[in-house]
Amino acid sequence: MTDHEDAELFARLRSLWTDVDPMPASLIDRMIAAVATDSLSEEYALLTLIDQPLGAVRAETDALTLQFSDGTTSILLHVTTSANGNRRIDGWVDTATTEIVLAQGDSIRSTVPSETGRFIFDDVPQGLARVRLTAQDADSERTVVTPQFEL
Question: Structure pTM?
Answer without folding.
Answer: 0.58
